[in-house]
Design a protein that fits this description.
Elements (H helix, E strand, L loop, with lengths): L3 H37 L4 H29 L1 H21 L3 H29 L5 H20 L11 H12 L1 H6 L15 H7 L2 H26 L4 H26 L4 H18 L5 H27 L7 H29 L4 H23 L20 H8 L2
Helix pairs in contact: 1-4, 1-5, 1-6, 1-9, 2-3, 2-4, 2-9, 2-13, 3-4, 3-6, 4-15, 5-10, 9-10, 9-12, 9-13, 9-14, 10-12, 11-12, 11-14, 12-13, 13-15
């Protein structure tokens, strides 16, 4: 049961949570819709991968520029502006059906969404007292993943070849502005985070760097190219929605268990276990019947998201509190680089080989992470388990704000 203090805080934060719920429904539907529509229009799979990667390129740009904008004009204006931008640009996908236009629009979309995430998370940080932040952000992350999950099932409303689903995405995102702009809530201050060079991070510990990169590459690949894999496997739209929904639900539920376990063992072993399990899953997933495929993709969703969060916890065990903000901002950029590379590489491999090449790429990625995890388990400097900080569930799609917020407790 939630305490009275948590319920009181959530009652204050409800406009923000309602707004982000609509944002994530639109985001979840948009990603799956674009993959299926691109395939229906006969785009080369490599071109589709390039288009889907463009979102994460815009996301990276936003991570750098959006904090400056928030500091300049404030949270409400940035949220309203970026929600309007995200809502309007999605319609261009239905009007101009070509990969070049879509690529440009996806960059703008990624830039817009990271702005919405940073605003939401920094604003929520100002509302939540220190002792309640874990519970408040658990509720926030449930809303984020719940919206992504719900968005998948709108794909069944009308054929993807029609423009109606793009209109649905636009309308849902537009609705998100209403609770935010009409709420009588004070807006917080905002400090732009500094970034630590990757060279300095590598000297601290290289294993989590590889882990967050692998998590970004795998997560973005499945979220963007997964619908194409499913379609090429002969699934109907309703099955594709369930396939993607299972991945998202796994990413929501399993990290809580894996995080609990990672607090009780050497985190190097936790990273090794997650990477090895992921490696085994992608090796087994090819050619399975639908029922078994859904089960494995559910577990894989949990593994990919957990890998990111365990790596964040691993790094935080080894740095000073004063370094956490800059380290977190740098790690989100590294994760974003993996997000950019994943869909692009998957599209190229599927075009030149077949759909199963996507999971072959993920197998190699997780295998390399696991092998390096074995090496670091024998050569790295251990941290006493009793001195490890508590695990915090951080989805890789989130901005750096959630990481900073939880580190500051």
């Amino acid at each position: 049961m939630l305490s009275k203090d948590v319920l009181k805080t959530l009652s204050i934060a409800w406009p923000l949570l309602a707004g982000i719920a609509f944002i994530m429904v639109g985001n979840g539907l948009q990603g799956t819709l674009l993959s299926l529509r691109a395939h229906a229009e006969g785009f080369p799979v490599f071109a589709t991968g390039l288009v889907m990667s463009a979102y994460y390129f815009g996301f990276l740009i936003g991570c750098i520029l959006v904090p400056k904008l928030i500091a300049s004009v404030g949270h409400i204006r940035v949220f309203a502006g970026f929600a309007s931008l995200a809502s309007s640009t999605v319609l261009f996908h239905g009007i101009f059906v070509d990969p070049y236009t879509w690529g440009i629009v996806r960059i703008i979309s990624g830039f817009s969404f990271v702005g919405l995430f940073v605003v939401s998370e920094s604003w929520l940080n100002s509302i939540a007292p220190n002792k309640l932040r874990g519970q408040i952000f658990s509720a926030y992350l449930f809303v984020v993943h719940g919206g992504l999950f719900a968005g998948q099932f709108f794909i069944n409303l009308v054929p993807v070849e029609q423009i109606e689903l793009f209109i649905v995405v636009s309308v849902v995102i537009s609705i998100s502005i209403i609770p935010i702009t009409l709420a009588n809530r004070p807006t917080p201050g905002f400090e732009e985070p500094e970034h630590m060079p990757f060279k300095n991070l590598f000297s601290q510990s290289p294993l989590p760097l590889l882990g967050v990169f692998a998590s970004g590459l795998a997560g973005a690949t499945i979220l963007t190219m997964g619908p194409i894999y499913a379609q090429k496997s002969g699934m109907e739209n309703s099955q594709i929605a369930l396939f993607m929904g299972a991945y998202i639900m796994g990413a929501t539920l399993l990290p809580l268990l894996i995080g609990w376990l990672s607090d009780r063992v050497d985190r190097r072993l936790a990273i090794l276990a997650v990477a090895s399990t992921s490696c085994l899953i992608v090796a087994l997933i090819i050619g399975l019947p639908f029922f078994y495929l859904i089960g494995l993709i559910f577990v894989l969703g949990g593994m990919v998201t957990s890998l990111y969060s365990v790596c964040i916890a691993f790094m935080n065990d080894r740095i000073k509190a004063s370094q956490m903000t800059s380290v977190s901002a740098s790690l989100i950029l590294l994760n974003g680089i993996g997000c950019c590379i994943g869909p692009l590489s998957a599209g190229l491999l599927i075009d030149h080989f077949d759909k199963d090449a996507m999971f072959a790429m993920l197998f190699i990625t997780f295998f390399m992470t696991a092998v390096f995890g074995v090496y670091r388990a024998f050569t790295g400097r251990p941290v006493n388990i009793e001195k490890q900080g508590d695990f915090v569930f951080v989805p890789a799609r989130s901005s750096q704000m959630v990481i900073q917020i939880n580190d500051s407790e």
